[in-house]
UniProtKB/TrEMBL annotation:
Segments forming domain Flavin reductase like: 30-200
Name the record gives this protein: Flavin reductase family protein
Gene3D superfamilies membership: Electron Transport, Fmn-binding Protein, Chain A
Protein species of origin: Microbacterium protaetiae
Cofactors named for this entry: FMN
UniProt-recorded Gene Ontology molecular function terms: FMN binding; oxidoreductase activity, acting on the CH-NH group of donors, NAD or NADP as acceptor
Top-level taxon: Bacteria
Family statement drawn from the similarity comment of this UniProt entry: Belongs to the flavoredoxin family.
Keywords: Flavoprotein
Keyword Flavoprotein listed: yes
InterPro entries for the chain: Flavin_Rdtase-like_dom, Flavoredoxin, Split_barrel_FMN-bd
Lineage of producing organism: Bacteria, Bacillati, Actinomycetota, Actinomycetes, Micrococcales
């Protein structure tokens, strides 16, 4: 690995090339996967596997394709649950990976997807009643968010929405919440990581911020 010359101009970019140009067919570098539940027009639940998201404060921004049943549902019925599986649940996401709750299946999805009304059953997962929204939670997921969609912004190519959802309530497996804290213990929580179409458990702890509720004294300058 190249190290920086401390006497060099700090604004100058190095011209030494250390990387090669890659052409990955997807840009999924590794984020927690999630299961989003929404409500169909007849009141039954839909469930979909997804990974595109970020969180700031109590807002989640989800990247959801426009052709899916989930996007249709949440445009009309904004109550959703966002459920985070741990690594052992990865086969459930594979079971969902060729299913859509949309009927008829849109032409551009028809090669890879088939309609399934009972996504929970197909995924071998258990719907659990929510407290604040109609969409059920996924009982097997250790971390479950109830949320309401506040805005759906069409993406540039029309193929996806940026969905801003406000988290209303967080439900956690008690094993994740040290007694009396209400916080999630990051050392106990193991999200399922989705990277370049493979699933991983997270690795060992590498570090922390001093703003963490669990932070020991800093070890770096
Ligand atoms: C691991 C995984 C991650 C996925 N990530 C997303 C995603 O971030 N956004 C999305 O819209 N679809 C994603 N999909 C595809 C949807 O699950 C798929 O389009 C599904 O048919 C949607 O279901 P629905 O039509 O019933 O809503 C992902 C699928 C898998 C298996």
């Amino acid at each position: 690995m190249m190290t920086a010359d401390p006497s060099a101009d700090p604004s100058a970019a190095t011209s030494i090339e250390t990387h090669i140009v890659a052409h990955p067919h997807v840009l999924y570098v590794g984020t927690p996967a999630y299961l989003i539940a929404s409500t169909n027009s007849d009141g039954t639940p839909n469930l979909a596997a997804a990974s595109s998201h970020w969180a700031l404060g109590d807002m989640l921004c989800l990247g959801l394709e426009a052709a899916g049943q989930t996007a249709q549902n949440i445009a009309d019925r904004p109550g959703i649950t966002v459920n985070f599986p741990s690594a052992p649940l990865w086969p459930a996401l594979v079971r969902l990976s060729h299913l859509t709750g949309r009927h008829p299946v849109p032409a551009d999805k028809s090669k890879r997807y088939r309609f399934e009304k009972d996504k929970f059953g197909a995924a071998q997962l258990t719907p659990q009643a929510s407290e604040l929204v109609d969409a059920p939670r996924v009982q097997e997921c250790a971390l479950q968010f109830e949320a309401t969609v506040r805005r759906m912004t069409p993406g540039l190519d029309g193929g996806y929405f940026m969905v801003e959802a406000q988290v209303l309530r967080v439900h956690a497996d008690p094993a994740l919440v040290p007694e009396g804290t209400g916080e999630i213990d990051p050392r106990v929580w193991h999200p399922l990581i989705y990277a370049f179409r493979h699933f991983f458990d997270r690795g060992p702890e590498a570090g922390w911020l001093d703003s963490s509720r669990w932070a020991p004294p800093p070890v770096i300058d």
